[in-house]
Amino acid sequence: MSNSIINILSTKAGSFHPVVEVDKNSNRFVTIDLTSSNTSLNSDVVGDIVKFEAFINEFLGMNGAKFAVGGYLEYRDLYSRSDVFSGSSVDEERRLHLGIDIWGKAGTVVYAPIDGIVHSFAMNDAKGDYGATIILQHEVKGLLFHTLYGHLSASDLDLEIGQQIAKGSLLAHFGNHEENGYWPPHLHFQVILDMENKRGDYPGVCSLKNKSHYVKNCPDPNLILQLSF
Q1: Could you tell me the domains of the chain?
Q2: Which string of b and e fits 55-90 if b means at least 16 CB within 10 Å?
Q3: Are 85 and 129 in contact (CB under 8 A)?
Q4: In this predicted model, what pLDDT tens digit does every residue of 4-29 receive, in sequence order?
Q5: Whole-angstrom distance, CA of residue 172 vs CA of residue 153
Q6: Model confidence, pTM
Q7: What is the mean pLDDT of the chain?
Q8: Which residue spans within 57-206 are E strands per DSSP?
Q9: Are 40 and 74 contacting, i.e. CB atoms less than 8 angstroms apart?
Q10: 93-125 pLDDT, tens per residue?
Q11: Which of 57, 43, 27 is nearest to 186 (CA)?
């Protein structure tokens, strides 16, 4: 199924609606490195939400960009800031990011890239978690897959299961840190093939031990986002 969906999404490249408002004639996007190789992103910064937000905003300003993007299969030590990502052993610690993050301003509008229905939604409000989360279900050529939107505004959860969501419609907004899991404002966007009976939540970070399983179930979100970075 994984290869089938990937092939189908690849053939639809260019037909998806942008998830955030994009002006292709300006420098709206810049890649950001959130691994330990970025020495300016230390534990003092990620452990203090005010400093973390300032770090993101300064990065955007220095690069003249509206959004900072990246993160698919990026190994991030910064997840040690939250017990959400801990495990019973070092092998079980979750550090490998399964989505693409788009960092920007709180209130940034999020659009549905493709027709779908509301699969589920939830407030995952533990520190470091998704905060307000929406999961859509899509069907393309008889195959089902899902897209997850994390770190949203709490007001965006006024939804109904099964509600129709049209391509290009306003779906949500970037939440502030008080409602988005205590992160600088951003969107976590993830493609999920099998929800594995989960509702309103699905791991956005996995351990290296479980990488093979999650990479198969969560293909590169840029198949839909179609961002150049």
Answers
A1: 2-225 (2.70.70.10)
A2: bbbebbeeeebbbbbbbbebebbbbebbebbeeeee
A3: no
A4: 888 888 888 889 999 998 766 566 89
A5: 7
A6: 0.95
A7: 93
A8: 67-70, 96-97, 100-103, 109-111, 116-124, 131-140, 143-152, 164-165, 170-173, 186-192, 205-206
A9: no
A10: 999 999 999 999 999 999 999 999 999 999 999
A11: 57
